[in-house]
Amino acid sequence: MTDGIHSPFEGTPVAVVTSPVPVRIEDVIVHHEALKTFVLEAPFPVAPGQFIMLWLPGVDEKPFSPSLVTQRWRLRAGRIEVTARAVGPFTRALMACRPGQTVGIRGPFGQGFSLEPCSLLVGGGMGIAPLRYLADALDSNGLPFQAMLGARTAADLLFVDWFQRRSASFYTDDGSAGVSGPVTQSLDVELESGQFRAVCACGPEPMLLAVKKACETHSIPYQLAFERYMKCGIGLCGQCCMDGTGIRVCKEGPVLTARELAGVTELGLPHRDATGARGPSGHI
Amino acid sequence: MSRGTLLPKSGHHDRRLEVSIAGIPLRNPTVLASGILGMSASSAGLAVALGAGAVTFKSCGLEPRKGHPCPAVVPFEHGLLNAVGLSNPGAEQMAREIADFRQRFQIPVFASIFGKTVAEFGQVAEIISKARPHLIEVNVSCPNVESELGTPFGLDGAVTAEITRVVKRASEGIPVAIKLSPQAHGIGRIARACQDAGADAITAINTVGPGMVIDPVLRRPILSNRVGGVSGGAVLPIAVRCVYEIASQVTIPIIGTGGVSRADHALQLILAGATGIGIGTGLHEAGDGVFTDVCQGLSDYLDRNGLDNLDKLRGAAHD
Ligand SMILES: Cc1cc2nc3c(=O)[nH]c(=O)nc-3n(C[C@H](O)[C@H](O)[C@H](O)COP(=O)(O)OP(=O)(O)OC[C@H]3O[C@@H](n4cnc5c(N)ncnc54)[C@H](O)[C@@H]3O)c2cc1C
Ligand SMILES: Cc1cc2nc3c(=O)[nH]c(=O)nc-3n(C[C@H](O)[C@H](O)[C@H](O)COP(=O)(O)O)c2cc1C
């Protein structure tokens, strides 16, 4: 990012815009029918790993971590890119959105990734999206990193060309691209190499827990981006609190380190749903 | 980037701030209001760490409810609008969370219940009583689900008194507080009817309105439910007036709630007659330090006025 303002979110805290701001959809990039990137006007800055609440009037409002943010935001010329996958009513309605339409966004919410030299980025599925923004930020700060990215199939593997120009290895469950099998399979070997001083991960919770375990084995600090059901986004409603310490994923998270995860007892359990109940039907 | 401040540990201890509500001793008068943080034992536990004197859980009914789509909580300059829509995991699950809280924390815990019919209030009270909360607060006033549940019970003194009797019968000796709506005409008289029906305390107020915020570019209401209850700074004068009116009609303790984010707000409610001070939106308006800051401010006031407890201040604004 060579735009005028350098990392506006480092140092002075950025004011959070808590009521939705109407923004134009500038562009829609189609990865496939159910996986698209929406390029939005940026009325505020968002750090890698932080999230916004995206409002489709008449539908609902849901949390998303941008896959890229360009930072000429003070001139209102910045862009927030959100990459989303159709999984339910909201994201299906989002897939139907076209350039020129207006949506509402508020944020930036929560704590993002801190930029560390010699980071290993581990991404699974949609988790690759926020890591792309993190990688971009590391790049523009001259901080070296490597990425290990996995998905179910080649079609679900996001930003392959973009990451290939940097330093990345790819994994798919069905072997349709890169190495066959889980992205975490060679994590121990990579961490053993001693070339990494930090690990940043985003993806399904079992993947995050595998990363956590490997990092603990090799005594490497980790930053893991979690998802929980969110309603207010501002740390009030209690919906996204984790059992154990009650930390709010929308406020203390979504990126959590060993320090914040200490005492949390619900990792790997089915998530609480919109009612607040934790059930076997819950999503993990 | 610096990590967020995590859990300022409850800092303020001052025995002069201890109060008692329906025989329940509180380390300080602040009470986490229903609907803020109290979804689970752990989320309510966060308020303990932040210094609250007691915590109220989110209102629960007989069945689980998802609530309204988002945006369901929208801040504006002077507070918040919310139309969460009484999302809750149902009384059985809530009872487990409350029982878990009781095991893990020493601070008094208040359950909050609602029903679709008078009889249902009794059923929910019976389920929740098994968890042995220190108090059961009865939400007769939530305006969000009016369209679905009909006119709020709390607007009618006779119905509110009937609910009070039903809940008292079902709650096995656990103290009962009735939480009143500022929309009620003659809120003092209704509080009196609750007291006569056996209520042990009154909580006032629930949210005001409903209100609406409209986005001028999108030209539509921001809340998915279009309307929502107003809370925070905007409603403080209404809460103060309601507590004042109630205090002139009842002798049972009042948990004054609405718009408190600073000690001078709490002081107004105490001078109007409140024993407990509910805090909800203040957590957003003043941040995580709100409970300890309010308590610190009350201690400072006692210092300046040479007082050794809050008793002489309670209701002192009445002639
Ligand atoms: C911090 C954060 C960042 C996210 N970033 C992205 C992203 O960049 N790209 C992307 O495609 N998805 C992202 N998600 C997930 C996205 O919010 C859900 O896919 C979306 O809410 C699904 O809504 P739906 O109506 O389409 O599906 P539904 O059928 O309603 O739900 C599908 C699943 O999505 C999850 N979900 C639904 N509503 C919420 C909610 N309010 N809060 C949290 N999870 C919910 C649930 O686990 C549910 O099982 C993120 C989630 C969080 C918490
Ligand atoms: C997000 C939110 C959810 C709420 N949910 C409930 C609820 O479930 N039951 C209830 O009795 N009151 C509920 N309330 C009302 C509060 O408990 C309180 O009475 C009101 O907000 C006024 O206090 P405050 O200004 O300190 O927030 C809710 C308020 C907010 C802001």
What does this structure look like?
The complex is a heterodimer of chains A (284) and B (319). Chain A has 284 residues and is an alpha/beta fold. Chain A is 17% helix and 30% strand. Chain A has six helices and 14 strands. Chain A has helices at 89-95, 128-140, 160-164, 187-192, 205-217, 258-261; strands at residues 17-32, 35-41, 51-56, 60-64, 68-70, 79-85, 102-109, 119-124, 145-151, 168-172, 179-180, 198-202, 222-225, 255-257. Chain A has a seven-stranded antiparallel sheet with strand order 4-3-7-1-2-6-5. In chain A, strand 9, helix 3 (160-164) and strand 10 (168-172) form a beta-alpha-beta unit. By secondary structure, chain B is of the alpha/beta class. Helices cover 33% and strands 18% of the residues of chain B. Chain B has helices at residues 41-49, 91-104, 118-129, 146-149, 157-170, 187-196, 236-247, 263-272, 282-285, 290-304; strands at residues 19-21, 24-26, 30-32, 54-56, 73-76, 79-82, 109-113, 135-139, 176-180, 201-204, 208-211, 214-215, 220-221, 228-231, 254-257, 276-279. In chain B, the strands form four sheets. An eight-stranded parallel β-barrel of chain B has the order 3-4-7-8-9-10-15-16, surrounded by eight helices. In chain B, strand 12 (214-215) and strand 13 form a beta hairpin. The radius of gyration of chain B is 18 Å and the shape is globular. The model of chain B is unreliable at 1-6 and 143-147 (pLDDT under 50). At the A-B interface, strand 1 and strand 4 of A face helix 1 and strand 5 of B. The complex binds flavin-adenine dinucleotide and flavin mononucleotide (FMN). Flavin-adenine dinucleotide is lined by residues 51, 62-65, 83-85, 87-91, 126, 129-130, 227, 229-230, 254, 271, 283 of chain A.
